[in-house]
Design goal:
It contains twelve helices and 14 strands. With about 325 residues, the protein is an alpha/beta fold. The structure holds 2-amino-3-ketobutyric acid (AKB). InterPro entries: Epimerase_deHydtase, NAD(P)-bd_dom_sf, NAD(P)_epim/dehydratase.
């Protein structure tokens, strides 16, 4: 059951945005989604196919104006810097991630709109329990990305309790997809590897052997957003943000999964110390039980099923 009618999406040209726009336009109709981004959707046919407006999320007035003019009832705020880029440009990351979120929450408050913006496994830190990380636990991240994610979770809860804004969120693991590349994340190796497996039959991993991180295939991530947005609010004990994950693996596991389809595929390592440091501060695997119990989170792709689909879909594209 879809109860959203008109959704404004920021960061619509990003890895999550372009697939969420596509899904919600199928569910709500072309005009049901106002896609926005700081750049033009050149070549992105899905986003170009319906309403699109240029929006810098630092500009709160412009965001409110677009939302008002289009009578939106839901704000999905995705524009943010990811972990590796945020660590290179921490001042920019704080300004963009926090100001953008604040402007989006204010827009939702003023228009009484529903609200979704993702958190991340990056919200956890080195003294968080590493395995089966609980929903409610120690959160002392050591990256600027993580700092903005924890602050964002708290701010979204504040807008719910103080102003009654219907804020909802998930802690995304690394997201793997074939339509739009991620930009500047620590988990990006798990996307790059499929491209290189098809192009070169080999891959040099910038993440070290033995580094386990949570991951999810994009169709499950998109389903999770739609499901949480449509969840019965009376069942939500948590809001910002739910642990969700579909699998946890290290580089050797994804290599072996690809080798089941491309036996000659080879992998070696040239570890990037900056991204490795970030990965080492994150959990090995998080516990999604509360998301399962409160709104029925249920991913359908495991590692092998994802590898098969990724390689099938990508081979027609590259
Ligand atoms: C990143 O690596 O920065 C993101 C994330 C896990 O939030 N993919």
């Amino acid at each position: 059951m879809i109860i959203l009618k008109k959704v404004l999406i920021t960061g619509a040209l990003g890895q999550i945005g372009s697939e969420l726009v596509e899904r919600l336009r199928k569910d709500l109709g072309e005009n049901g989604v106002i896609a926005t981004d700081i750049r033009k959707p050149e070549g992105n046919q899905t986003v170009e196919s319906g309403p699109f407006e240029i929006l810098d999320v630092n500009d709160g007035e412009a965001m409110l104006d677009i939302a008002k003019r289009n009578n939106v009832d839901t704000i999905i705020h995705l524009a943010a810097l990811l972990s590796a880029v945020a660590e290179q440009k921490p001042q920019l990351a704080w300004n963009l991630n926090m100001k953008g979120l604040y402007n989006a929450l204010e827009t939702a408050r003023i228009l009484n709109a529903k609200f979704f913006s993702p958190s991340s496994i990056g919200a956890f830190g080195p003294n968080t329990p590493k395995n089966n990380t609980p929903q409610d636990t120690i959160m002392r991240p050591t990256t600027m990305y993580g700092v903005t994610k924890v602050a964002g979770e708290l701010l979204e809860d504040y807008y719910f309790t103080k102003f009654g804004v219907d804020t909802r969120s998930v802690r995304f693991p690394g997201l793997i997809s074939y339509k739009t590349l991620p930009g500047g994340g620590t988990t990006d190796y798990a996307v790059d590897i499929y491209y290189e497996a098809l192009k070169k039959k080999s891959y040099t991993s910038f993440i070290a052997e033995g580094t386990q991180m949570d991951m999810m295939y994009m169709p499950d991530a998109i389903d999770a957003v739609v499901k949480l947005l449509n969840a019965d609010p009376s069942r939500l004990i948590h809001r910002n943000s739910f642990n969700i994950t579909a699998m946890s693996f290290e580089p050797e596991d994804i290599k072996k999964s690809i080798q089941k389809i491309i036996p000659e595929f080879k992998m070696d390592y040239d570890v990037d110390p900056d991204r490795q440091k970030i990965a080492d501060s994150w959990p090995n695997s998080i516990d999604p039980t509360d998301a399962q119990n409160e709104w029925g989170f249920e991913p359908s792709y495991d590692l092998d099923k994802m590898s098969k689909d990724m390689l099938d879909k990508l081979k027609d594209r590259i």
